[in-house]
Specification:
Blueprint (H helix, E strand, L loop, with lengths): L1 H5 L12 E6 L10 E4 L8 E7 L2 E8 L7 E4 L12 E7 L5 E7 L5 E6 L6 E7 L4 E4 L2 E2 L10 E8 L5 E13 L18 E4 L1
């Protein structure tokens, strides 16, 4: 019954010849296998939670910069079949704050991060080239080669923008794509490098 309620595609699901689905929530899904990790692990005071409904994971809470200053949600294990993809696309609805997309190297455990902007109360598509993800360890940048798609072991979202206050971010879908094939769909090229956004 658990797997019937899960309805989360994380393995060999392909949206098209160019896209590999990392995360996609069915309209009826209520479970996800994700977990919360906040700055409370190091004595911080931020709090967050998530729910899955209406075809998306809704991550919300309150960021407290008095100690730690981060809140995050982490997804289940992933298995990407090959390294033919060069970017991540996220379908998100935010609150105007800047978040991080975080990918874990399944072989070394290293976390790679890329920041992205959101628009308050608008669904947007965010495109993040893998070459722009920076290897980090506890907030410190590491000198590591770029992460290849076939080494992605999990995906997560994190807020650490240094601003106290409530936040809310929804994730409906995350896919890997091959930008060399030329189809960027409705993605807008206007926002900052590495954070391309399109309203739908």
């Amino acid at each position: 019954m658990f797997f019937r309620s899960l309805l989360l595609l994380v393995m060999a699901s392909t949206a098209s010849a160019k896209d590999f689905v990392l995360v996609e929530f069915a309209e009826s899904a209520t479970e996800s296998g994700w977990r919360i990790v906040n700055d409370t692990v190091m004595g911080g005071r931020s709090n967050s939670n998530y729910v899955v409904h209406d075809g998306a994971l809704w991550f919300s809470g309150y960021l407290n910069t008095n100690g730690g200053g981060f809140a995050s949600v982490r997804g289940p294990r992933l298995a990407v079949p090959d390294d033919s993809f060069d970017r991540v696309r996220l379908r998100v609805r935010g609150d105007g704050r800047r978040y991080q997309c975080r990918l874990e190297d399944r072989e070394t455990g290293t976390t790679y991060r890329a920041d992205f902007a959101t628009r308050a109360n608008e669904w947007v598509t965010v495109e993040l080239p893998l070459r722009e993800f920076q290897a980090t360890w506890r907030g410190r940048r590491l000198d590591r080669p770029p992460l290849s798609a076939d080494r992605i072991g999990s995906l997560g979202l994190l807020l650490a923008d240094g601003v106290d206050g409530a936040f809310k971010l929804a994730l409906a879908r995350a896919v890997l794509s091959d930008g060399s094939k030329g189809d960027t769909g409705d993605v807008d090229r206007e926002p900052p490098v590495g954070q391309t956004i399109a309203q739908h």
